[in-house]
Each structure stands twice: as C-alpha cells, then as structure tokens.
Specification:
alpha/beta, 39% helix, eight-stranded mixed β-sheet, 16% strand, Rossmann fold
Length: 337
Amino acid sequence: MSDADGGDLPGRLADLDSELREAVTDIESLGVPPWHALSVESARRIEDDLFSSDADLPVGSTLTLAIDGPDGDDLPLRIYRPEVTPAPTLVFFHGGGWCLGTLDSADDLARRLCRRVGAVVVSVDYRLAPEHPFPAAVDDAVRALRWTREHDASLGGDGVVGVAGSSAGGTLAAATALATPDGTAPAVQTLLYPITDRDFTTDSYETNADGPLLTRADMRRFWREYLRSDVDAANPHAAPLRARDGDLEDAAPAVVVTGECDPLRDDGAAYAERLEAAGVAVDHLDREGMCHGFLSLADEVAAADAAFDDLAAATRERLASAAAGESAERGGPRDAD
C-alpha cells in the first residue's frame, strides 16, 4: 500500500483522511515540539502563530470590546455579525487546554460559525490557567453568557442564545449549560471535540496516545495546569461527564462533533450518550479519519469542510427549534384582523 493510501506510515498517521494527513504533515514539518514539552508562555506564542488566520472569511461586521469580568477586570469579547440580522446568537469559547488560545487564534472558527450557521457569534477571551485555574474560566463563561442574554438585541440577536466551544472551550460550553446564570438552558450546546473527563485510559486515549496534533501527554499537562487539586476533577463544571443524571435532564439540546483519530473522541461520545440517556436531543457527528482540531483545517481538507457544513446545519436546526418553542410559548404570531 502506498503512502497516499496510508501505507508505510507511522500508525498515528496511517488512519487519517489523505488530505488531512497532508495538512498534518505540513504542520509537523515545522518542527514544533509537543505542547507538553514547552513552557506555557512559549506554547501560547506558538499556538497563536500557528492558528491565527489571515484567511478571507468575511462576515457582516466585527467588534472587539470588553465587559466587566466576575473579578472586576476586563473580559474581552469579539462580536461577529452575519450579513442578515436579527439572527440567533452563539457564545463561543476557544480551545487550547484552558492554558492557550486567544481571540485571534479562534478567529477562523468564529467566522465559520457566523457564516455557516448565520448567527451572531460572541467569542470569549476567558482567563487562562495556570495563572487563573479552575473555576476562573467557567466563571468568565457564565458571565459572558449572562451579558450576551442581557444585550442580545443590540448585538443583532433575535433573542435565541446558544453556546459553542472547541476542545477545552467545548468543556466550558457544556459547563456553562450546566451552570446557566438564570436557570434557563441555552438554545443549543455545540461541542467540537470536547474534553469531558480526566480519564486517560479510554480506548481513544490508548489508540491515539501519540496524536497527531494532540497527545495524551499534552492532556495530562493541561489538566495539571487547570485544576487546583484532584478534588476539582470530580466537579461537573470541570468534567461535565461527572454530572448527575438529574442535572442533565434539563440540559440544552446538543451537537457533538468527534473525530476517529482524536484521543478525546471517547470523551465526546460518552457525553453524547449521557445526554441522550437523560432524554436530551443530541446530534453526534463522528467523523472517520479525523484528528483533534480538524475543523480548523476546513479550508484545506474537504472532509473537514463537509463536517463543518453538517454541524452548522444541525446547530441551525436546534436554534430554529428553540425560536419556534419561544414563539409558541408567547402564543405565536397573531392573525391580522
């Protein structure tokens, strides 16, 4: 079997989609050491350099601002408005193991969500560990959701607000859905390869321990920096898979995206199963041949681009259902006399 078919390649690359394998090989050819081998500051600089995009993905408008955070300091946000408003809103949390990531490194995902879902996207620059360990990021996420609900109309929103996040940001989206600031679940929780538990023994961790793009050693390091102690690992706001069944029954409908070659694949799958067992509507979009972070490569990988279309369609459907439900509760539109 040829290299193009995945033959004669390290096991960690052999099962990847061929276009994704090429993209990953290009990234790895830069010679960047694994995340766990770097200082946090160095990893932050490299992550920002690698994933901040100059891609031409126009949206209606963008605005970067700051609100008062839970501790009184600034909490930066970037607002992406689609061409047509009013529109539903997604509060978005970037990935990076709770230690890395900026508004700029998440710009491509935020723009794609805005364009393909047709939603206002509020991207949140939450506080990072280890300077600000758990629960600082969750507190910031909850504050951002509360502020967005209060000011949704001025942002171009139509009153329907959901949450979304990638990787560690997916954890924050799920945690925010469990810790809703006003007791009302978001319209949707769109979780892109989320971290849902600190369990390094799952099948996907065993199979994909060496990555690519994310390894088990990386995740051990991220969890170590994020948590104050082992006690936090049992807190459902840190590890949503630890939530009690009763706390999941009123959770938001979910769109969960996972990749076959991601060490976090079983984290997302297990959470989707827990939600479904609790009676929550779930779209679990599991993609063969995809590794962690594949949606950020949608401009290079056709299968990733198609997956983004699918998650956007599922998210739109959940947002539309929430809008219809709110209209029904208000009695729906009245017929003209």
